[in-house]
Amino acid sequence: MIKKCSLAVIGKVSAPASRIQVNNPEHQGGFWLPNIQRPFVWHDEQIERLFDSLMRDYPISTMLVWRTESSIRCRRFIDHFQPGIPLSQYQVPENDKPKMLALDGQQRLQSLFIGLRGSYDGKQLFFNITSGDLDSSSPDEIRFKFRFLKPAKAIYPWILFSDIVNFKGLPNDLGEELADRSPTALDKETIDRIIRNVWQVQQVFCNQERISYQLLDSVDNPKAYTENEIVEIFIRANSGGTQLSKSDLLFSLLNSAWEEADVQMESLLEELNAGGYKFDRDLVLKTCLVLLGKGANYDVGKFRDETTRARIVENWGRISAAIGDVRDFLRNHTYVRSHHALTSYNGLLPLIYFRYHYPDKWSGTQGLATFVLRVMVTQAFSGRPDNLINKLTRQIDVDKDFKVPRLFEVIRQDGRSLELTDETLLAIGYGSRQIHLLFNLWYRQFDYQPAFAGNAPQVDHIFPQSALKRVKEYNPETGRNSLMRYPAPARDQLANCMLLTAAENGPGGKGGRLPSEWFAEKGRAYLDMHLIPNDPKLWNVDHYDDFIKARQGLLLERLMPIIHELPDWEEAPDSPTPTDIASDAKPNSALELEPDQESDPRPKASGEVCQVTTPGECSSMAKNSSVQLETLSAEGVLADFLERIAQPTKYIAGFRTPEGRELALEREASTITLWSEVVPGAEESGFMLRRRYDATKSRNSNLKSKNFPRLKMGNPVLMWKLADTDELLDFINWYQQA
């Protein structure tokens, strides 16, 4: 059925009780967003055009709404939007009361809510009260001017739009008041336009029923639509218009089968990208398909299979651990330490597949770094690599190993080149991602993850472009020196590039200084680090060609062995041992070691507490015990000093202090991740507080268990990341006394 609702339910603070309100369960359950919905993607300009359309009485498309009593995960509409904000912050507790879930039309309804009740990136919606001249604009132009502005920067005639919508008096009175605010005298035509605009705002946003929606009613007719049917309807409804990305569609299907999919995905991506990479949801979902034998082709139909979705949920711990281990290997053993240097994330899929299916061989396999570096430098996974990925994973299964020569042969048979000659290497130039990869290989002393992104290393021309552009050659057609001797490829080539710190390349740094000036004040160590020929006469523009030839020799001598041969610095990956990754076990699971009752002075898991009188005393006690604390897992340490709440679940182990405070350990995390109650002084504790969750904010679904009454939804919680078990002991001591 088709129904309509008034915009007043969004704009007015006090709307009639008969109307449905956004984020208001007291009004017929309220409008909410199901968790299968993608993030809000409209830009501020799109929102401004939507309000212009409404003021011009243009129709907007019908929404699709599902009325249901299902206890389904949903979130509230965002009032104060910030780009990149995690959707998990807006999740609300599940309930079995009637509610209205927007399946199609989220972008429009969310835009209206932001414009009328909230802000966009700290800016509120203002209306140019003098705009709207009926004779001055064509149909495709903006007639009624809206703009998101900082309130402090909004000057007349820009008026906060929500003030006009929520005005309680007569429109004429407000129109005259707004006209009086003008710092200059207005003519009668402009005053009339202002009054007419106020009337139009009141009519469109308060009186008319402008939003129509098609209702799918599962309350009055519970058998009409199953949840699986709703997901399929959602996908079909979002196949046109501003289309959902393929990952949005796939993730909506996964979300329908796994209530904490978005929380787990956010957590995984946060950990993967903490060191300067840009892993995304598309890659993770594609990885899931590859690891489960579904092929690399990224197809929505594969996620419609309930068995596939169930296997992803069941194996999420192993999947995320495999991706995390390859990411750590990439950073620690290939020195590819930034997103700029990673020319293809798809090129990591064979390694992730090998780590996932053959974990017992991962730690002893040689040649992994050689594989990564060769395929990244030659861009072997460019274009459409899905078939290549499938061929490589099949070869890994045939060999039950990661045999680099055979895998290279598979790549060559797929018609892709792995050859890197001197000429192709030296042709890599300024602006390419390959140059960052090469720089990562030899500039290992540079910090690629500074606290401020603007301090990241920068690629710079050794001989400034401006100086080289001034070098001219004789032009026989004109009889003058008018031909540029060094075109862009000659200026941008690898041999004329170096890596500088942000400070070196900033104000007062190298800038446009010639090498003869810049290198004159540098020592031998600096020249060696940057592979600069140690001959000052080559640092002059007149000897640019000789400089390039000499530096090319130094580059080839340094880089070719790294790429073509197994580097002497390549070591076995830091990976869990086979006993850490049994088929049913997960990384970071508890290491159940019983303390020596005669020699271990620590309290047992009976609820007693390790009372620490000075920081680190527990660490000293452990180091003097017969069992070194460093050999215990985080869960084992917690079990030694606190009382277990219950048997650990697959993902969570819970503990309680003698004071009754609860503490939960994420068993799947690659670092020590804890959930705690909110206690005083958290920000000043000295421990890494990663996130604060209010009472309505979604968290790990395992915390909803009856075993965690103080940490489940409905209570505020804190999430912590700790470096090691020494810090964990200090944390236990602080948490008990906080």
Automatic annotation (TrEMBL):
Species per Swiss-Prot/TrEMBL record: Marinobacter azerbaijanicus
Entry's transmembrane regions: none
GmrSD restriction endonucleases C-terminal domain ranges (all copies): 439-557
Identification of the protein by name: DUF262 domain-containing protein
Domain annotation GmrSD restriction endonucleases N-terminal: ranges: 27-254
Family matches, as PANTHER family: DUF262 DOMAIN-CONTAINING PROTEIN, VNG6097C
Tree of life domain: Bacteria
Stretches the record annotates as Disordered: 568-611
InterPro entries with a match to the protein in the record: GmrSD_C, GmrSD_N
Pfam families (UniProt xref): GmrSD_C, GmrSD_N
